[in-house]
Write a structure and sequence with these properties.
Layout (H helix, E strand, L loop, with lengths): L1 E2 L2 E2 L2 E2 L3 E5 L4 E4 L7 E2 L2 E4 L5 E4 L2 E2 L8 E5 L4 E3 L1
Antiparallel strand pairs: 1-4, 2-3, 4-5, 6-9, 7-8, 8-10, 10-11
């Protein structure tokens, strides 16, 4: 899974997931809010927790989002 970050001077919302069995990338639901320099961890239930980082305001954020792979959806 590759998500967020910055392109040139803009933060991005994109999320892509790599399937090694098919050797292909697919687009997933976008991040609820663009950010860079964040941490992402896979939880025991397979969901992905995204926390912290730098948001679109250019400052540090302590917000979190959870990505549900089965539903291709984010929640906070």
């Amino acid at each position: 899974m590759v998500m967020g970050g910055n392109f040139d001077t803009k933060l991005v919302l994109s999320v892509e997931i790599y399937d090694p069995d098919r050797d292909e990338w697919t687009l997933a639901a976008q991040l609820p809010r663009a950010r860079t320099q964040f941490t992402a961890v896979t939880l025991n239930d397979g969901k992905v927790l995204v926390l912290g980082g730098i948001d679109t305001d250019g400052g540090a954020t302590d917000t979190t989002f959870v990505y549900d792979v089965a539903r291709d959806a984010w929640s906070d």
